[in-house]
């Protein structure tokens, strides 16, 4: 269990992390999502006591990181794949970490085997590819057999086989009852691995919700209809009380109706359909809308955001600048 | 708290598993010994060409440490790399995640590397002394003579302290390149030049290398050097203060700054 309370980090006047409070619970994979520069890595560094917070606290199983005896046995982290000495062999890089936390050296061979690096254990790590470096970093995180594991963008630089491997590894570790906290800027990646989601933008908490709820709330599902009898279909839908939104190419989108209902409706009125499909807005879109909102909010923070939604504000500004498009300019 | 013996073991593994340790320490040994022996042989051959003052204050012990001027640079590189590569490789974040207690981490590292540097320094100074005395022949001295053992042991301490000083500086600057860029010219040029400039030398004699090297002299004001307002142990004391200041500075930087 990791608990953050009012965690804040300022770099000069820039606020990188802004009063973050959330909990990371055991037994599940918690995704930590945000666009690049949202403050994910800074937050993770503060969780490991590498960066000093401006204010707020992080507690690992109720303790400050610095008070943990042999922290690798509590929490393992992959922050940066290149955070190893390139002139040292993979084995020795792990051995010195193991020794500092009184972990037996046999465990070094074990984790190297787990990540598939046994064959290159005696090779200097500077010759490693990004993917191998990532595996070595994961090996170091697993070294102390910790209850909590933290991965910062673990799939970066991995090939498809490697990505598949890390996904399954995280799920397997969570199913053993461990706490898994993994960051990403890709919603699609999170949708495949995470059970719980924490979304931040501009250092602020935007969402703290289960993956299922996030999908429920944020992915609009609708039915898509196409017909050669476009006008008739629209009238029929209108009569029956459905709100159809017309999009380009003679496509109608209907919210809040099942494909069964609409198909039967069309049959009753003998309307020919060329398409009847159930659609779902992608989670990536939902995530982008959510974080774009936080960016917009900051850009207009000198105004009252409630009085004037940013989108309307932008449209209004465009009209103003276009000569002739405004009535008052003609006079 | 982290177990200190465990962290010491870990730091020893770090030091012995990189090749820079071997080549810097071997360089320090070879350069100091070879240059000391060569200059001893040269001075022995050209003794009659020395000025009267130099002949009067001829110090065969001090002469055997002539190679220190160059050999200490390898010690500087060793000290800087021990600390600096943690930063340049990014290993520092992994290391501090494993040992979050900054004091335990830094002082264990400096202890292990410092002891190794002192051992190599002592070995270097004894070999340098005996080889140079062989080169000096009749003009040489004996390890049993007054103050000679003090000077030879002091020569080893000097080498070790230079390395520890460099570790402190590297911890303060958090960069190998920057630390080497400052320390190498300082010890090789700036300090040597200032020590020869009237006016500036009153300040330069309190620099760590100038003060510390006093311990290697047996004859007062050896080789007609300027008299200093401190004795051999006083000089070494000044150097130790520099080393403590650098290490403390390095610790404060590590403690207060983000890794």
TrEMBL record, chain A:
Protein family membership: Belongs to the ABC transporter superfamily.
PROSITE patterns associated with the record: ABC_TRANSPORTER_2
Alphabetic keyword roster: ATP-binding, Nucleotide-binding, Transport
Annotated segments matching region Disordered: 298-331
Source species taxonomy: Bacteria, Bacillati, Actinomycetota, Actinomycetes, Kitasatosporales
Matching Pfam families: ABC_tran
The ABC transporter domain, residue ranges: 2-227
A GO MF term: ATP binding
UniProt feature, compositional bias: Polar residues: 322-331
Organism this protein belongs to: Streptomyces globisporus
Gene3D superfamilies to which the protein is assigned, alphabetical: P-loop containing nucleotide triphosphate hydrolases
Protein name per the record: Efflux ABC transporter, ATP-binding protein
Keyword Acetylation: no
Keyword Nucleotide-binding in annotation: yes
TrEMBL record, chain B:
Superkingdom of origin organism: Bacteria
Stretches that traverse the bilayer: 21-42, 62-84, 105-131, 151-173, 180-200, 233-254
Record key words, sorted: Membrane, Transmembrane, Transmembrane helix
Keyword Transmembrane: yes
Protein name as catalogued: Efflux ABC transporter, permease protein
Organism: Streptomyces globisporus
